Every structure is written in structure tokens, then in C-alpha cells.
């Protein structure tokens, strides 16, 4: 029975996956950027080491083409000029770089590919963005059930269902894999992630059953919480897999679930505000 259920899950994922193309993620990975590190040589060197921590010789060569160091503001055009001397510690450069490119809607996986020191923060931002998007879609899809007359006005495209949420999560999986240096190829990714995704999607399905127990507008918020927590769980389980080489065990899954739900509870306070 368990084998049949797992095969059914894989078939369901594959049917959705066939409609998704990794080409978008491949293009994002190769998006060029230019960063100037400006300051005293010892400071720019320290920031360079932080940004490229864990890089292979090949990646270091690529990074040196994307990131340049100067002792004074450059006359050339750069996507971001980082004043290294004003940083309290070199590690602050990671957040400064990721924040800047995130604010300008730049594909963050490109940063993680060239600057592996940004990987952890990039992955966290990717997961958070998709979790927030899915929460919004889930709450939008709940509007007609809470306010029936709005169902006549809402366009069908606005009524998010689990297929849409799952597609968003699977694209998130590709981006997380890419951030860890893995090829965004479904044939390679799904077999190695089947146990990770199975556990995460299974939890989300159970959590959805709770939504019907909560009436009215609160139910709409709870649907958002379930989508948010479920997406966080999927993303973090995948990130755990690529960081450690193993799927999270029972204790770690429980921790991921609990943490995601607590964060969703905090996030829902914003959604309840008028």
C-alpha cells in the first residue's frame, strides 16, 4: 500500500512537472551582474573571502570576472557598489549584496552560483518569497467560499488551487537545487528528492484538513497559513537535503513542521490587519 501511494504521488508530480520548463531557471542562473568592492585592500579582500567562501577554483575564476575591487569609487558602471570600509564585519557584505539584488528583483540564484557565500541567505529568500506568494494565492482562492457573491466577480485565473501552489513549490525546488550548484533538471532532481517531497506534501495535505474546521474570514487566513507553512516546509526540507546529502529524519521533519507553523502564525497577524 505504501509503495502504491508513493508511485501515485510520483505520477502526480510528474504530470505537473511536464508542464514546467527548467529553461527559466537556467536563464536565471546565467544572468550577469557586476559588483564593485570599494575600500582598503585588507577590507575588500576580507569581503571577497566571505562572498566566495566554499568556491571551487573554477567558480573563483568566474567570480573574479563578476566582482572587482577598488580603493576608490570606480568610474565604470556597476550593478552594485559596496563600501567595504563602513561594514562592521565582513560578513555583513552578504546581507548587503543579497538585499540590494533582491530589492531590484534580480534572480538570486545567479548570485549563489557565482558567490557561494551568499547561498544560505539566497535560499532563505527564495523560499520565503514563494511561501508568501502561495499564502496570498491560497487566501484569494478562499474568498468565494467566505464571501459567496465575490465568487461571481473573481476571474477563474484568480482562484488558486493546489496545482498552482504545487507548481510554485516545484519551481522553488529547482531554484534551491540550482543555488546549491545542481543542474535544474527534473529527471535528475525528482528521484533523489522523492522522499523529501513526499514527507513535505504529506504534511501539507493533513494540515489542509484543519482549514474546514475554522469558519468565516478566519478560515481564509488559516488557508494562507497552511500554504505558507507547507511551502516553507518543502523548501527547507529540500535545502536540508542539498546541504547534508540526506533527507531530514523524523526528528528534523518534526522540527521543520513546528517551526514553519509558528512562523505562519506570526505572519498571519499581518494578514489580519485591516
Strand count: 3
CA radius of gyration is 21 Å
What is the typical, i.e. mean, pLDDT?
Answer: 82
Oligomer designation: single chain
Query: Number of DSSP helices?
Result: 12
Q: Give the H and E element order.
A: HHEHHEEHHHHHHHH
Low-confidence stretches: 147-160
Total domains: 2
Q: What percent of residues are in strands?
A: under 5%
Walk me through this protein's architecture.
About 5% of the residues have low confidence. A 3-stranded parallel β-sheet has the order 2-1-3. The relative contact order is 0.11. The longest helix is centred in the C-terminal third of the chain and has 29 residues. The protein has 2 domains: 180 residues, no CATH class; 75 residues, no CATH class. With 274 residues, the chain is mostly helical. The protein contains 12 helices and 3 strands; from the N terminus they run ααβααββαααααααα.
Annotation keywords:
274 residues; mainly alpha; three-stranded parallel beta sheet
Describe what is shown at a glance:
The protein is mainly alpha-helical and 274 residues long.
How is the topology of this model organized?
Layout: H1 2-17, H2 23-29, E1 35-38, H3 41-51, H4 57-66, E2 67-70, E3 80-83, H5 92-103, H6 108-114, H7 119-146, H8 150-153, H9 162-179, H10 186-208, H11 216-244, H12 250-272
Amino acid at each position: 500500500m505504501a509503495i502504491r501511494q508513493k508511485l501515485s504521488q510520483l505520477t502526480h508530480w510528474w504530470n505537473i512537472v511536464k508542464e514546467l520548463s527548467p529553461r527559466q531557471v537556467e536563464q536565471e542562473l546565467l544572468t550577469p551582474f557586476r559588483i564593485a568592492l570599494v575600500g582598503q585592500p585588507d577590507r575588500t579582500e576580507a569581503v571577497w573571502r566571505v562572498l566566495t567562501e566554499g568556491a571551487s577554483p573554477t567558480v573563483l575564476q568566474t567570480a573574479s570576472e563578476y566582482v572587482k575591487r577598488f580603493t576608490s569609487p570606480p568610474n565604470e558602471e556597476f550593478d552594485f557598489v559596496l563600501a567595504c570600509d563602513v561594514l562592521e564585519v565582513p560578513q555583513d557584505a552578504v546581507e548587503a549584496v543579497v538585499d540590494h539584488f533582491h530589492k531590484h528583483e534580480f534572480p538570486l540564484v545567479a548570485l549563489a552560483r557565482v558567490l557561494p557565500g551568499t547561498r544560505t541567505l539566497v535560499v532563505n529568500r527564495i523560499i520565503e518569497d514563494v511561501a508568501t506568494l502561495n499564502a496570498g494565492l491560497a487566501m484569494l482562492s478562499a474568498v468565494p467560499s467566505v464571501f459567496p457573491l465575490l465568487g461571481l466577480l473573481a476571474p477563474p485565473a484568480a482562484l488558486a488551487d493546489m496545482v498552482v501552489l504545487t507548481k510554485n513549490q516545484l519551481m522553488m525546488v529547482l531554484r534551491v537545487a540550482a543555488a546549491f550548484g545542481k543542474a535544474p533538471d527534473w529527471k535528475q532532481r525528482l528521484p533523489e528528492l522523492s522522499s523529501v517531497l513526499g514527507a513535505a506534501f504529506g504534511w501539507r495535505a493533513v494540515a489542509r484538513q484543519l482549514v474546514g474546521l475554522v469558519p468565516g474570514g478566519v478560515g481564509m487566513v488559516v488557508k494562507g497559513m497552511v500554504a505558507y507553512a507547507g511551502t516553507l516546509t518543502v523548501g527547507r526540507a529540500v535545502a536540508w537535503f542539498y546541504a547534508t546529502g540526506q533527507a531530514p529524519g523524523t526528528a528534523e521533519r518534526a522540527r521543520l513542521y513546528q517551526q514553519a507553523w509558528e512562523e505562519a502564525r506570526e505572519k498571519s497577524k499581518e494578514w489580519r490587519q485591516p
